[in-house]
Design brief:
heterotrimer, A mainly alpha (73), B mainly alpha (230), C mainly alpha (493), A: 73 residues, 49% helix, elongated, C: 493 residues, mainly alpha, 72% helix
Chain lengths: 73, 230, 493
């Protein structure tokens, strides 16, 4: 298989994969709203209530995953 | 999974990076495996031509002039054969430009001469009435940087195996060789010899005097470069 | 955690606001000079024959592009980052000495880079690649600045109180990553001084890539420098400033998230459209074309989201010049993200490439979208960082209309110029010969170049009004209380 064919296959499968991911993301966004798990729209308020004295929309609590991506000590 | 990603800035960043790196990975990297092959007849630049190329870049000529002939009749009529990928094999950087305020220069060496360039660079509007190109009179005074041009030749020869001192097949079946001087002094002497040929076709007395005194004004290098564009 | 300091620390944001205004004026002033030079070439000698080398079009042109991109826009991005970042993460810079020192270092190294860039471009020291003109010593300094900014972003995120990252932060992260990747790969170069054992100019370098490959990397960079410098961070701004100023949460937060991923994936493919009909492989040109058209979707996703955010609140557009700036910005965003894909269609590109239409496209994007949004952001920030009301609302309105007129003159004249020139280049007479010599296609553009120069000058006048308004706001405007700063920014008459 030459490099061009390889390129074409890699391209096709990655695009297909990303399309699936994107659609399942859309599904995830809406389904978590229907199921009442999480309403994404509330995050829009982060911009509106952004004084340092305002209550965060979601607080980082101590027992809720301690190492946030290895960045948050 | 998605929500997890949104809460973990580091992995989120990784995901973003993978998404944006994908295009480059597929589009660009494989092409480098097959490094661009020079077309038959494409030679690396001589020291003087390369110094001229640096003058071209220094004055940002590519801001107004392209070096890319597209495969349309109107373009091939006006500028000559359309560009081939291999013709650019020794162009570091490429100088295709993105705007044609002035005409394309890809093959300007085929239809313009040394004295045309000399007059034109001094006063473009006198040669081409209505031209909006500024004059480049300082090129007649500034000295070209032969040292840096030679340093670049040595570098591309060493790092990218640009074929200096090697036989290069020409279109007519013969072989040509572009020499690379062994020392800086030799390179300067060779560039001066080339410069003398150009200066012989020029009228500007200051330029002639400078070349006779062993200097190479920018304009001479520039014209050598423009003449090499074929 | 409980011993919270009371305030956000805007020290560094203020500094970057200053450089935004100053470098904006410099960049646009040089741009206006260039525009007049194209209409009247005598302007090339404005400082006399002796200085002609430094005042002529070709030497000034990179100074214009680079000071608008890396001066005005980058400063604007950083000014807003050091403002928005703290607020949506609900953490003050004052809480971390380390981040504060980093931010100050960020600013001062940036200043040094600016000085080095201006000097080297005037001297003609350039790698020859558009928007990547800097030679290797400056490239290294740029990388240092960028790494510091990255540390600042992730450092601030690390000590945040707000668990979720607001959409603007997503876009800032993408800006950071995107430019880092593009800049590094496009500026791969070998210093000739070291490779040749100490011959020639020490700052000179030669590109790692040659010819067609170099072009491919350059436009993968060039186009996406636009993506990650002129689109992504500006979208970050509008997602924060428009909701905040209008008091309306983003119309659909879900749509904003989707548009984000869409943009991230699609944008990088579009670079190939700069190389249509060139010597890069055909399939890449086609890919560039196709993806450029697909790109309309995520771009419009964001822009429509912004317009819908104003649903039911359109009276604010009439009453607040600040909202006007932002709505016009997102309208221009829609406009130029429609225009761009049209130009990327192969047959249109055959006509438009190399002409002034492209110049027009860049400028309706940058003047209409980027600059309007950055100025709106600075107007919104000024009362909050200086604790004074915006000096004059009527001046803002005047500026808005002058600049809008300027942009309209600019892009309409460039459309006509570009299409005229493109048509004339390809025109053949009845015998199949070229109908026009090249110079015919230059002289015909004179009126349009003049109109463009007038448009540009109007925009520059607006910039001066902006600078004056900001200066007065900073120094002598009425002081305001925290309570006045909730949503709509306080403005003096």
């Amino acid at each position: 298989m030459d490099i061009g064919t390889l390129q074409a296959y890699a391209y096709f499968f990655f695009v297909a994969f990303l399309v699936v991911v994107l659609y399942s993301y859309i599904y995830h966004l809406y389904s978590s709203q229907w199921k009442g798990k999480r309403d994404y729209e509330k995050y829009g308020n982060i911009a509106l209530h952004d004084e340092i004295t305002d209550q965060p929309i979601e607080t980082i609590s101590k027992n809720d995953d301690k190492k946030v991506g290895g960045i948050n000590e | 999974m998605f929500h997890w990603l949104e809460k973990h800035p580091f992995f989120f960043a990784v995901a973003v990076f993978l998404t944006i790196a994908f295009a480059g990975l597929i589009e660009i990297l494989p092409n480098f495996a097959q490094a661009s092959q020079p077309t038959v007849g494409t030679k690396p630049y001589t020291t003087l031509e390369l110094a001229g190329r640096h003058v071209y870049i220094k004055n940002n000529c590519m801001g107004c002039h392209s070096q890319l002939i597209r495969p349309f009749k109107s373009e091939t009529d006006r500028y000559g054969h359309y560009s081939l990928s291999g013709e650019y094999a020794y162009d570091r950087p490429f100088l295709w430009g993105s705007k044609r305020t002035g005409p394309d220069l890809m093959r300007v060496g085929n239809y313009r001469t040394t004295d045309w360039h000399e007059n034109h660079m001094k006063d473009p509007a006198a040669v081409v009435p209505g031209s909006i190109m500024p004059a480049y009179r300082w090129m007649f005074k500034n000295a070209a940087d032969i040292d840096t041009a030679y340093a670049e030749q040595v570098t591309v020869n060493k790092v990218f195996n640009t074929p200096y001192n090697a036989e290069i097949p020409m279109a007519d079946g013969t072989k040509a060789t572009v020499p690379l001087a062994a020392t800086l002094d030799e390179a300067k002497a060779a560039a001066l010899e080339e410069a003398k040929v150009i200066a012989a076709d020029m009228k500007d007395q200051d330029v002639k005097d400078a070349v006779a005194a062993g200097q190479v004004p920018e304009i001479v290098a520039m014209i050598a470069y423009l003449n090499s564009l074929k | 955690m409980e011993n919270r300091p009371l305030e956000y620390d805007y020290t560094v944001a203020k500094w970057f606001m200053l450089t935004t205004v100053v470098l904006g004026i410099v960049g646009m002033l040089v741009g206006v000079i260039l525009a007049w030079q194209m209409a009247f070439p005598a302007v090339n000698l404005m400082a006399g024959e002796g200085l002609a080398e430094y005042t002529n079009f070709s030497r000034l042109r990179p100074l214009h592009t680079d000071s608008v991109i890396f001066g005005f826009t980058l400063s604007g991005i950083w000014a807003t980052w050091y403002y928005v970042g703290q607020r949506v993460l609900k953490v003050s810079m004052a809480e971390s000495k380390f981040l504060m020192v980093l931010a100050k270092l960020h600013f001062f190294i940036y200043l040094l880079v600016v000085v080095a860039v201006v000097g080297s471009l005037l001297l003609g020291i350039s790698t020859g690649k558009e928007y990547a003109d800097f030679e290797w010593p400056i490239d290294i300094a740029v990388v240092v600045v960028w790494v510091i900014w990255g540390m600042s972003i992730f450092g601030l995120i690390g000590i945040r109180r707000e668990k979720s990252l607001y959409i603007s932060i997503w876009y800032y992260i993408a800006t950071f990553l995107g430019i880092a990747m593009l800049y590094l790969f496009n500026n791969m170069e070998i210093p000739t001084y070291f490779a040749s054992g100490g011959i020639g100019a020490w700052y000179h370098s030669v590109s790692m890539y040659s010819g067609t490959n170099d072009a491919l990397v350059q436009w993968w960079y060039g186009h996406n420098a636009v993506a990650f410098g002129f689109t992504v961070p500006i979208v970050a701004m509008i997602y924060y400033f428009l909701p905040k100023e209008s008091g309306q949460a983003v119309y659909s937060y879900k749509l904003s998230l989707l548009a984000f991923w869409g943009l991230m994936f699609v944008y990088l493919w579009a670079g190939g459209h700069h190389l249509i009909y060139s010597t890069v492989p055909d399939w890449m040109q086609t890919m560039g074309s196709v993806f450029s058209v697909v790109l309309i979707l995520p771009s419009w996703g964001s822009a429509i989201n912004m317009l819908l955010t104003m649903k039911g609140e359109w009276q604010q557009v009439a009453s607040s010049p600040l909202i006007k700036f932002m709505i016009l910005a997102s309208t221009f965003y829609m406009f130029s993200t429609l225009e761009g894909p049209i130009q990327a269609i192969k047959s249109v590109n055959a006509l438009a490439h190399f002409t002034d239409w492209i110049v027009g496209h860049v400028h309706d994007g940058v003047l209409g979208w980027v600059a309007f949004m950055i100025m709106a952001a600075l107007f919104h920030m000024a009362p909050r960082v200086y604790k004074r009301e915006i000096y004059s609302k009527s001046l803002m309105n005047t500026q808005f209309w002058i600049q809008t007129l300027g942009v309209v003159l600019y892009f309409t004249s460039m459309w006509i110029a570009g299409i005229t020139q493109g048509m004339m280049w390809r025109a053949h007479d009845e015998f199949g010969n070229l109908a026009y010599s090249f110079i015919d296609t230059v002289t015909v553009l004179h009126p349009y170049y003049t109109i463009r120069a007038v448009g540009g000058t109007l925009y520059l006048v607006g910039m001066f009004l902006f600078a004056y308004n900001m200066y007065k706001t900073m120094t002598s405007s009425r002081r305001v209380e925290e309570s006045e700063l909730q949503n709509a920014s306080p403005m003096g008459a």
